Amino acid sequence: MRAFRTALLLALMLLALTAGAAAQTASPNPLPEPYSADEFPDWAVSLRRWEIISLGAFPIVLFYTKFVFDFTRYAGSGFNAYYAPWPFKNEYTYKPTNGEQAVMFLTAAGLSAAFGILDAVLLASDGGS
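Request: output the structure for the sequence above.
Response:
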C-alpha cells in the first residue's frame, strides 16, 4: 500500500510538471499592445481625466474642508477651547455629529468635482495641448 502511494505521488508530480510545459506557447512579445491614440473617443478620455483629477484631489480637499469647518466652529464660539481645531484637539474637545461629517464629506466631494471641471475647462480653452 505504501509503495502504491509513493508511485501515485510521483506520477502526479510528474504530470504536474509536464502539464505546465505543454500549455505554454512561444510568442514573440508577451506584453499586450499599448493603446493607440484613436482607440477611445475624446469624451471618454476627457471623462477619465476628470475622474482622475477629482478622485486625486478628494483626500487633500477633505483634509482642508475639515480644517476650515473646525476653525469656523472654533472662531464662531469665541475661540472656546472646547471647539479647538484639529492640531489642538484631544479626547475632551467637540466631536462633530454624523450630519456635520456628512456635510463636510459632501462639501469636499463637490469641491473635488469642481477641480475636475476647472481642469476640463482650462484644458478645453488651451486647445487640448
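The helical segments are 2-23, 42-76, 98-125.
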